Amino acid sequence: MNMAVRTESNSPNTEIESEGQSIQAMNVFVSLLLVLVLFSAIGVVYLKDYNRRMYIDSQSLQRTISQQISLAGKLMLEQSAWSAQTRIQQLAEKKLSMHAPIATNTVYLYFKNK
Fold first, then answer.
1. Cα–chain-centroid distance for residue 92?
2. Number of domains in the chain
3. Does the global pTM surpass 0.90?
4. What is the pLDDT of residue 10?
């Protein structure tokens, strides 16, 4: 009985089938690894492109922020120029015929504290 089992397990057909199955399994494994490597490569390319686009957007936004800060500074300077005391006094004199009072026309009021 042991002899028959040994003879059957050592038959050439069984070894060939066993080698064929292991080669087939190896081919499936290699194919799976190849697919995984391809997906990984596509992912790397996609992420690199995405990173490049985000960097370009970031630079564009930085440029916009810089321009807005510059514009805000110019507007503040213009506002201070429009509200300058000398300009307001000149407009009051020209358009409203207003003049600063002279010393003789000035009346001071004094209040006593209790």
1. 51
2. 1
3. no
4. 52
Give whole-number Cα distances, 98 to 5, 32, 81, 89, 103, in Å: 126, 92, 21, 8, 16
pLDDT at 68 over 80: yes
Between CA 108 and CA 114 the distance in angstroms is 19
Range of the domain at 53: 12-95
Measured CA to CA, the distance from residue 56 to residue 61 in angstroms comes to 9
**Of 114 and 104, the one with more pLDDT:** 104
Give the list of residues 6+ apart from residue 87 with CB closer than 8 angstroms, or none.
81
**Tokens in use for 32?**
């799976």
Distance CA 18, CA 12 (A): 10
Helices of type H across the chain: 2-9, 12-82, 85-95
In a domain, 71, yes or no: yes
Name the token pair of 31: 């194919």
DSSP-derived secondary structure letter, 96: S
